[in-house]
Amino acid sequence: MNELITIKDIARICGCGVSTVSRALNNHPDINPDTKKRIMEVVEEYGFVPNNSARNLKITTSNTIAVLVKGANNPFFMKMIGIINDDIQARHYTMELRHVAEKADEVEVAYELTKEKKLQGIIFLGGLSTHSTEKLEQLGVPFVLSTVVMDEDAEGAYSSIAVDDVKESYKLTKYLIDKGHKKIAFIGASETDISIGQMRREGYLKALKEAGIEPDRKLMWLSKDGVDAYTMENGYNIMASKLKKGAKPDFTAVFAIADTIAFGAMRALSDAGIRIPDDVSVVGFDGIDMGAFSIPSLTTIRQPFVKMAHRTTQMLFSVMSEETNHSIITMDAELVERESVKAI
Amino acid sequence: MNELITIKDIARICGCGVSTVSRALNNHPDINPDTKKRIMEVVEEYGFVPNNSARNLKITTSNTIAVLVKGANNPFFMKMIGIINDDIQARHYTMELRHVAEKADEVEVAYELTKEKKLQGIIFLGGLSTHSTEKLEQLGVPFVLSTVVMDEDAEGAYSSIAVDDVKESYKLTKYLIDKGHKKIAFIGASETDISIGQMRREGYLKALKEAGIEPDRKLMWLSKDGVDAYTMENGYNIMASKLKKGAKPDFTAVFAIADTIAFGAMRALSDAGIRIPDDVSVVGFDGIDMGAFSIPSLTTIRQPFVKMAHRTTQMLFSVMSEETNHSIITMDAELVERESVKAI
DNA sequence: TTGTACGCGTTATCAT
DNA sequence: ATGATAACGCGTACAA
Fold first, then answer.
1. pLDDT band for position A323 (50/70/90)?
2. Residue A194 has what pLDDT?
3. B289, A4: Cβ pair inside 8 Å?
4. Which nucleotide is nearest to B26 (CA to C1')?
5. Is residue A341 part of a domain?
6. Which tens digit of pLDDT belongs to each residue from B114-155?
7. Chain A residues with beta carbon closer than 8 angstroms to that of B233
8. Is pLDDT of B79 > 90?
9. Strand C: which residues have Cβ below 7 Å from it?
10. Is the same domain home to A128 and A83?
11. What CA–CA distance (Å, rounded) separates B74 from B67?
12. What CATH number has the domain bearing residue A202?
């Protein structure tokens, strides 16, 4: 029974005009408390809910901030979203969360949403590796890029906040080197992956070179095109394919560009009878919860998602009030030492 | 620059009427290919995007199916959503995905969405433990409940699809008993959790009783109110608090109502120097990916998310075409034997 | 304090 | 094949 009850019906039932009903619904000041109460009762009784489409069409402004997330499965983002939501509500705004498909163009989605609702601001979480400057400018709404990889030439054009993947990756590799490791295998994304996968490889290579270690192509394992690189399964398959039966591995440490990959690799090592960290050390990247509970627990780079979330909303509101110019904030990640690394 | 360009502007620029532009945009048959091409060029040039609110307001029907998910962080749901999306697109429909907050009322969200868009159907994924029949009836749109716990009295009123948590929980407990375990600890949700936590406890108790084992209150560990029960951290804390220093544990197996909880518990056992499965066996519930890669890998009940996803869309379309009555489908879950259990 | 009437941007109807 | 125009449901200026 799709009884399309509208504001007109409510007005008719209450014996008043539609504007009075509208006023009651939107907490307008100029309304008699009694009539308001009467109207709200009828609204309750009939379960009337205003049509959002019609409302968005008429409304001139709203306290809505959109959060566009690319990579919804990332548990890391889930936590950030929770914090951002709290921050937004604390400022008496409403968060409109939208997950954008991996292959979709988030700027396009943002543009459509901007026309549909009257947004005050937008937060892009992840994605945007190949964004065009002009399309972002066209939005006409303040926005902040959070946890996205920036094009070099785009620096200064927008406000963004992220960790420096190259630097953190360098830090982690250097840590392994300082522990005496020289033969450090690397499990990365595919050749064509132009986002974080590439930057983390850069940091790895930089640390090796700085230590005078010649990078060994045979120890740099990239994922196949088409497969999701950031999975345990992928980590397992890559590691398993590199282990020669019965022979000792020709590396003493493994750097996986994601914790998930590291878990898969650890399992493959374990299956081959290789002990961690006694025979081979393993490190990951991201700092997901599991790393603290796995056996052995995982040494990794932990992204400061709490701080990043706070700074993101903070920056957006700053941009919205035109208090600040566009700025790029780089946050430090933390090297978490646990059980999966041994000095040699 | 928020240039609000509308369909009127496009019409003016093209020197034609708005209806012609609308026809071009919506792939109407009655339009000259040349004019259509010309219009689309202008649309491209100006980056015009139709206002969705206005569109939803006017539109009489759409090929949209909404999927409302409660518990977005659940990786289990993420996979199901992907499959459901493919199924929906294969039938030339569009999926509208909405994550509903843990504390929000999903039926209310559904109702608002129904008024806003012209939905053809709705899929509820998770949640709805305390739903009221009348509110669901009021929707006026075909819907299917997937992976939700049903009230007993609501059976037959809607179409739903889920695993039988009591039965699967019973199966898993019986498996432990068959392996010779008699002192089986249970890590569950809080006392007030009326959803799956309670049903899985029922199955556990049923298996014990059937085997003539008196349930030991001291081995049934419920989570504190207020904390998220389904986390590794919670599993760790509960297990750690139950282990007496230096003493052998007074149980030989542990049944955690979720894989995540099991991982936390395993880590706590490991920290106490207790070997798995040699000293204590551990089982989980859900069948998340990590269970195959953890060390040791986790014996668990794997929910058939692929099948469940397919059946869910299948059932929705069946209901939409009024081919079928409301029915409740219970799917069998699979007991996955891995390394965390040992016969004694 | 309340009601009337107009317009938001689009699609559907009807005429051409 | 195309254009003019009436809705869709709501908020709001303006009149009362």
1. confident
2. 67
3. no
4. C11
5. no
6. 989 999 999 999 887 666 667 787 788 999 999 887 666 666
7. 289
8. no
9. A 15-20, 23, 30-32, 34-36, 54, 57-58; B 4, 6-8, 18-19, 22, 25-26, 48, 50-51, 54-55, 57-60
10. yes
11. 15
12. 3.40.50.2300
Residue type, A78: M
**Same domain for B76 and B205?**
no
Average pLDDT, chain A: 91
Give the best-scoring range by mean pLDDT among A150-164, A182-196, A251-265, A316-330: A251-265
Under 8 Å between Cβ of B252 and B181: yes
Nearest to B1 among A50, A56, A140 (CB): A140
Count of structural domains, chain A: 3
pLDDT in tens, B177-187: 999 999 999 99
Q: What is the mean pLDDT of residues B291-308?
A: 97
Question: What are the helix and strand counts (H, E) for chain B?
Answer: 13, 12
Q: Is A61 on the interface with B (CB under 8 A)?
A: no
Distance CA B147, CA B124 (A): 8
- The reply to whether residue A137 touches residue B1, judged by beta carbons under 8 angstroms, is yes
Residue-wise over B227-258: b if at least 16 C-beta within 10 A, else e?
Answer: eebbbbbbbbbbbeebbeeeeebebbbbbbbb
Please check whether residue A149 is in contact with residue A218, taking contact to mean a CB–CB distance below 8 angstroms. Answer: no
Clarify whether residues A157 and A174 are in a common domain. no
Same-domain status, A159 and A95 = yes
Å from B22 (CA) to D4 (C1')? 14
Residue B200 lies in domain: 166-303
Give residue B85's pLDDT band: very low, low, confident or very high (50, 70, 90). very high
Do B220 and B296 belong together in one domain?
yes
Distance in angstroms: CA A13, C1' D4: 35
Which of B2, B72, B293 lies at the smallest CB-CB distance from A232?
B293
CA distance B236 to chain A (A): 8
